Amino acid sequence: MFSGIVETMTKLKATSSSGSNITFTFATPEGWTLKVDQSIAHNGTCLTVDSLTDKDYTVTAMDETLKRTNLGALKVGDMVNLERSMIAGTRLDGHIVQGHVDRTAECVGIENADGSTVLTFQYTVEPDDVKKGYVIVEKGSVAVNGVSLTAYDIDGGRFKVSIIPYTSEVTNLGLLKKGDKVNLEFDILGKYIARMFPGMNENTKN
Questions:
Q1: Looking at residue 126, what DSSP letter applies?
Q2: Pairing mode, if any, of strands 103-113 and 158-163?
Q3: 145-184 in b/e burial notation, b at 16+ Cβ within 10 A?
Q4: What is the rounded (10 degree) CA torsion for 95, 34, 37, 62?
Q5: Which pLDDT score, from 0 to 100, does residue 205 have?
Q6: What is the pLDDT of residue 202?
Q7: d(CA 108, CA 25)
Q8: Contact (Cβ atoms closer than 8 angstroms) between residue 106 and residue 122
Q9: Structural element, H or E, at residue 80
Q10: CA angle, corner 30, sides to 61 and 165, nearest 5?
């Protein structure tokens, strides 16, 4: 379980394939002590550490994960957002994030807003999205590359978020260019409500 408050970024050092799986080697952030079987969110995708050295560690993504996320498009040298799992009893500064990415979206707009940055994303809305709870509500939470953000100006599969300079500096959202793909995880509370009360969503728009 994660909060969507990214701790740092790290660089992809190497990749290797085994069947449909891809193993990624990342540089271990300074000051981090990791262990095998530890869960870490990479661009919002929960992956398990399967080996490590003094300077780096590896994680493996299966085919299903690669299909739903932007991890398969990563190139050596790319920076990814990292968050270790939450510790019980600490403050939940973002929102509840599982690290189970639902789909990708495309960055279609970047604009300066007098100090902050407004990012516009677009994703394809599927016919059964509402039934699954794959919806974003005005001023609701969404995880973008694992970053807990507030969405607004929602129009179908298009929405905006605003990020402060700090977020631009410590996450890879500040490195985005138009056309880049990001990972989306919709709010888990919305998913459960959609499952429990399917009838109330029949006329809901994204």
A1: P
A2: unpaired
A3: bbbbbebeebeebbbbbebeeebbebbbbbebeeebbbbb
A4: 70
A5: 47
A6: 53
A7: 30
A8: yes
A9: strand 79-84
A10: 85
| pLDDT tens by residue, 176-187 | 999 999 999 999
Amino acid at position 15, single letter: T
Q: Record the pTM.
A: 0.90
Side chain identity, residue 52: L
Q: Which amino acid is at 66?
A: L
H or E element in which residue 129 lies: helix 129-132
What the block records as the tokens of 33 is: 């002590």
Contact 27, 9 (CB under 8 A): no
Residue whose pair of structure tokens reads 């300066």 in the numeric block: 112
Residue 19 one-letter amino acid? G
Question: Residue 174 carries which side chain, given as an amino acid letter?
Answer: G
